[in-house]
């Protein structure tokens, strides 16, 4: 049986061989106009690989006849594969799409181009911003549940699970809360940890009480009276500028954890952090001052956090004290007092005379008993950072309050985007402790970096897991920060002619250094309130905790910024000398309102101001004089307006406006101004003068000529009684 070299494979079956030959014969007839030279070479190459030649084909095959009889035709505008496909489509009855002829467009039907201002397209975000999406995660959730909440597919989350170093399993296997957070951060969503309060040991705990109120209403003095100290006397400016935490042993034997918050308007974030971690809020109101803006703000913080309020009316020993007026004001603001049928307790106290303190203690313990405060003692701890600072000898320190569980020395923790191993735990009097129980304020040592105030503390099992969580959070935080900067960047619109003169907006870069993390945030937020869309843009290029260093000077010199130090030590001589050589201004302050006042005045000095047109004076036309017969070289006939200045003064160099019955008739410059026979530059109120307006000959008795001057109006720095500041244009 003969072999066939068609396709490079031998076919032993005669029936299969005949079917293949007939099929090849049909294809050859359809593609007779193909480049046969290329086809012959391909068949020859295929035969040589199999050990055959074209002569080894069977004599009766039509295949050999075609190769010997037909002449070779070359086509350079198509390939054999393209022509064979086209022939097969026609044989099967399929229509091949043909390209239509080019048709020239009629110029008469073409629309003229529209002249419009080019507006660059806005960048489209294909993914939902991570700032808008929040996912709740918990211990033991599965891949399926996480996929539903994040909106990602199960296969995608399983791939991320492998990338974070976990062994892939079933999508129904439970995940730890740390792994769930890592996966959620990789797909670009925010997470909120949901912890369980169940445990084998649930015991009563001490209440956490936050003291809030308006500035200078006696909050710190009241706490000094409770714990028998004198902290208020040592504070700069006589006001609290830090968030303090301490435990007070009451006369009844019970202990209460107090948080002292600042009352100045700039420390709103601190008051919000205090309300987030507290059980009870003591609202301090001065009996001689009444309800003030920060009093209302403290009430709103308590309502948003769903925390009960106990009102302490302080300074009742003063002659101008009126507690009843304060109660009426609080009731009018929606606070339901006990005396008026509500559930809010009110106590009248005096921090100076130390009266009413026992009643305040009784109210706090009664409120805590009604709330039945208990916490889980066993298991990993959950804590909240109240304040953070950088110590020269001990490194980064975090003041925290434990919510549940127990913090133990030696545990690996993740605090925000920082991590570390607890080296030491100290109470608020700097005594070492081996562990921290719920409602206990402590200072933690051993962190690798400085956390932010308000961060949660998470206990993890290993150092590797702590590093991975910290790296993922840092990456996520940096992305969100850059996105927020792009969203907050001011859009400068081109002024139109109808809007009139527009002030030039100046950017003021500032470097902020403070003693603790909370005051850094407070100063930064307060400086941003000085932003004005017409005057200046306060750009905080860098913030940090600790003293001013040489690197801060280099950064300020590179971007042309000034350095603001709040509650930091005076920089050493070498740093001050470098700042002087680099022409970098350093401003050191210990009181927040003085800092804001100096920065506001600096903004006012640096702002270019707005150019405005003011009426400097007015003159009334009393008579008209005509000079005729003048030569063309002298300007021809001329009319002179005899005027009397009725308000302000009139200057020859200024622009004049001619008014008739309140309507503008002419506006132009003054070509001549004389008093009697003397040329003068200006004429004051009450004097008579002669005035000639260039290109104006239409004067009438009774017209008013206004003298217009361009004035640069500077912005103003305004500070309210509550401490809020702003720049008025």
UniProtKB/TrEMBL annotation:
It is found in: Mitochondrion. Residues 204-374 form the Tr-type G domain. GO terms for cellular component: mitochondrion. PANTHER family: TRANSLATION INITIATION FACTOR IF-2, MITOCHONDRIAL (PTHR43381:SF20), TRANSLATION INITIATION FACTOR IF-2-RELATED (PTHR43381). It comes from Linum tenue. GO terms for molecular function: GTP binding; GTPase activity; translation initiation factor activity. This is Translation initiation factor IF-2, mitochondrial. The lineage of its organism: Eukaryota, Viridiplantae, Streptophyta, Embryophyta, Tracheophyta. One of the essential components for the initiation of protein synthesis. Protects formylmethionyl-tRNA from spontaneous hydrolysis and promotes its binding to the 30S ribosomal subunits. Also involved in the hydrolysis of GTP during the formation of the 70S ribosomal complex. SUPFAM superfamilies: Initiation factor IF2/eIF5b, domain 3 (SSF52156), P-loop containing nucleoside triphosphate hydrolases (SSF52540), Translation proteins (SSF50447). Its main location: mitochondrion. Belongs to the TRAFAC class translation factor GTPase superfamily. Classic translation factor GTPase family. IF-2 subfamily. Pfam families: EF-G_D2, GTP_EFTU, IF-2. Keywords: GTP-binding, Initiation factor, Mitochondrion, Nucleotide-binding, Protein biosynthesis, Transit peptide. InterPro entries: EF-G-like_DII, IF2_II, P-loop_NTPase, Small_GTP-bd, T_Tr_GTP-bd_dom, TF_IF2_bacterial-like, TIF_IF2, TIF_IF2_dom3.
């Amino acid at each position: 049986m003969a072999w066939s070299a068609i396709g490079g494979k031998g076919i032993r079956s005669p029936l299969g061989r005949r079917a293949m030959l007939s099929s090849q014969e049909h294809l050859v007839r359809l593609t007779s106009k193909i480049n046969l030279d290329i086809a012959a070479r391909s068949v020859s190459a295929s035969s040589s690989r199999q050990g055959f030649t074209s002569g080894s084909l069977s004599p009766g095959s039509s295949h050999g006849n075609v190769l010997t009889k037909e002449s070779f035709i070359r086509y350079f505008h198509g390939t054999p594969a393209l022509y064979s496909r086209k022939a097969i489509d026609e044989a099967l009855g399929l229509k091949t799409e043909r390209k239509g002829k080019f048709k020239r467009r009629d110029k008469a039907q073409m629309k003229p181009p529209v002249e419009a201002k080019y507006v660059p397209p806005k960048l489209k975000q294909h993914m939902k911003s991570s700032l808008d999406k929040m996912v709740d995660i918990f211990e033991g959730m599965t891949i399926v549940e996480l996929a539903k909440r994040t909106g990602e597919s199960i296969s995608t989350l399983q791939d991320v699970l492998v990338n974070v170093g976990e062994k892939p399993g079933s999508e129904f296997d439970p995940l730890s809360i740390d792994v769930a957070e890592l996966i959620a951060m990789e797909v670009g969503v925010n997470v909120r940890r949901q912890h369980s309060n169940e445990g084998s040991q649930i015991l009563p705990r001490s209440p956490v009480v936050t003291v809030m109120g308006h500035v200078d209403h006696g909050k710190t003095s009241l706490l000094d009276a409770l714990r028998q100290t004198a902290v208020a006397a040592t504070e700069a400016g006589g006001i609290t500028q830090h968030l303090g935490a301490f435990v007070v042993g009451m006369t009844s034997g019970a202990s209460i954890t107090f948080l002292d918050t600042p009352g100045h308007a700039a420390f709103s974030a601190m008051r919000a952090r205090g309300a987030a971690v507290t059980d009870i809020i003591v609202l301090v109101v001065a009996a001689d001052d009444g309800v003030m803006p920060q009093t209302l703000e403290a009430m709103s913080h308590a309502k948003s956090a769903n925390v009960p309020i106990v009102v302490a009316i302080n300074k009742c020993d003063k002659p101008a004290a009126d507690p009843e007026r304060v109660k009426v004001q609080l009731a009018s603001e929606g606070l339901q007092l006990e005396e008026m049928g509500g559930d809010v307790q009110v106590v009248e106290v005096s921090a100076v005379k130390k009266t009413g303190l026992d009643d305040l203690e009784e109210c706090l313990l009664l409120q805590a008993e009604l709330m039945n405060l208990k916490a889980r003692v066993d298991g990993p701890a959950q804590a909240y950072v109240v304040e953070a600072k950088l110590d020269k000898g001990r490194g980064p320190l975090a003041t925290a309050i434990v919510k549940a569980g127990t913090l133990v020395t030696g545990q690996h923790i993740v605090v925000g985007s920082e991590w570390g191993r607890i080296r030491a735990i100290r109470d608020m009097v700097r005594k070492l402790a081996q562990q921290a129980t719920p409602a206990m304020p402590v200072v933690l040592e051993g962190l690798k970096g400085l956390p932010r105030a308000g961060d949660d503390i998470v206990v993890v099992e290993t150092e590797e897991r702590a590093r991975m969580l910290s790296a993922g959070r840092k990456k996520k935080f940096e992305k969100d920060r850059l996105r927020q900067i792009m969203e907050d960047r001011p859009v400068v619109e081109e002024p139109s002619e109808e809007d009139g003169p527009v002030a030039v907006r100046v950017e003021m870069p500032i470097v902020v250094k403070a003693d603790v993390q909370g005051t850094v945030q407070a100063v930064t937020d307060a400086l941003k309130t000085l932003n004005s869309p017409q005057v200046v843009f306060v750009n905080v290029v860098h913030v940090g905790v600790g003293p001013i260093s040489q690197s801060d000077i280099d950064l300020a010199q590179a971007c042309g910024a000034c350095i603001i130090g709040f509650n930091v030590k005076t920089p050493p001589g070498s740093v001050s000398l470098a700042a002087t050589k680099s022409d970098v201004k350093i401003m050191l302050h210990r009181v927040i309102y003085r800092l804001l006042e100096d920065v506001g005045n600096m903004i006012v000095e640096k702002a270019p101001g707005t150019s405005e047109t003011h009426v400097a004076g007015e003159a009334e036309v009393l008579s008209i004089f005509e000079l005729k017969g003048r030569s063309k070289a002298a300007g021809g006939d001329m009319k002179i307006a005899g005027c009397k200045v009725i308000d302000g003064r009139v200057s020859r160099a200024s622009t004049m406006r001619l008014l008739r019955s309140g309507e503008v008739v002419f506006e132009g410059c003054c070509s001549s101004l004389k008093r009697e026979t003397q040329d003068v530059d200006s004429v004051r109120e009450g004097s008579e003068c002669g005035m000639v307006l260039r290109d104006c000959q239409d004067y009438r008795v009774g017209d008013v000529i206004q003298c217009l001057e361009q004035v640069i109006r500077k912005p103003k720095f305004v500070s309210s009684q509550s401490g809020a500041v702003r720049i008025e244009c």
